[in-house]
Design goal:
10 helices, Rossmann fold, alpha/beta, binds NADP nicotinamide-adenine-dinucleotide phosphate, 6-stranded parallel β-sheet
Amino acid sequence: MIFVTGAAGQLGTALCSKLADACVGLSRDQLDLSDCAAIAALVESERPKVIINCAAYTAVDLAEDDPASCRQINADAVAALAKSATKVGALLVQISTDYVFGGSTIADGPNHEDSPLEAQGVYAQTKLAGEQHAQTCPDHLVVRTCGIYGHLPQPKNFVETMLRIGVDREELSVVDDQHCNPTSASTIADAVIALIDAKARGVFHVAASPPTTWCQFAREIFKQSDMVTRVVPITTEQFGAKAARPRHSVLDTSKYTRVTGKSLPTIADDLAIYLATRA
Ligand SMILES: NC(=O)c1ccc[n+]([C@@H]2O[C@H](COP(=O)([O-])OP(=O)(O)OC[C@H]3O[C@@H](n4cnc5c(N)ncnc54)[C@H](OP(=O)(O)O)[C@@H]3O)[C@@H](O)[C@H]2O)c1
């Protein structure tokens, strides 16, 4: 049996749909990760073979004002999952983020799994702590990815935000100095399953390529959607978000391809499939 936490989120929904009867999807109602005793009770009584932890406190800017809640879900709950997974001999798959990087520049090339980490801000720091807790489980996979967009009844992601705002505006200002690899939830779900099937262990990067910026990605969204909205490049400082964002969190995915024998899509192809399958 495979447990998928955060089953109502973007990635959890994609994984549950692909794994179908092979998994038990756990949304917050079935397992509240703020309750470590509930985590231990459920995992240790049901004894899943695999736990894929897709649940997280993902409100990056709100986390700056609510570090305790963020740490509880992104770090403390992972420690509890790792402890119980170890007890029952389960594989723990922890989904993590490109935000653990940030110290390098585009000239340094993409970040490898063992590149220096520099988590800035509460969300990134708690996700990094979550990675470290997951690694205490002898059987673990840490999967770092970036800029997830997935189908949900009320999706909240960069693609949907651009489409919603772009309809009414001739021009939009979008950050052009954060280099990243936005990736669909469907692609990430396929890759997580491929890593489990390949019996991979350790840290992996999973993302579409080649790297882009949010500004360039917005232009691609409008181009593929036949929208004429102009996108004006701005800097991170001009946008002025509360939490710090990495300027260069580009993920190198060659280890994933080497271990699974599978390739990952281009950002343009990945987006095209998402747009074509949008409700
Ligand atoms: N979104 C991104 O751009 C991005 C980028 C890189 C990595 N990641 C990582 O990828 C993973 C999946 O992200 P996502 O985009 O699928 O996130 P998401 O859509 O925000 O889903 C996260 C899920 O976690 C659940 N959750 C939050 N607090 C919980 C709690 N106390 N108990 C149980 N469940 C709780 C949420 O439940 P509710 O629906 O009830 O709130 C939500 O369904 C996360 O680990 C995230 O850190 C995300």
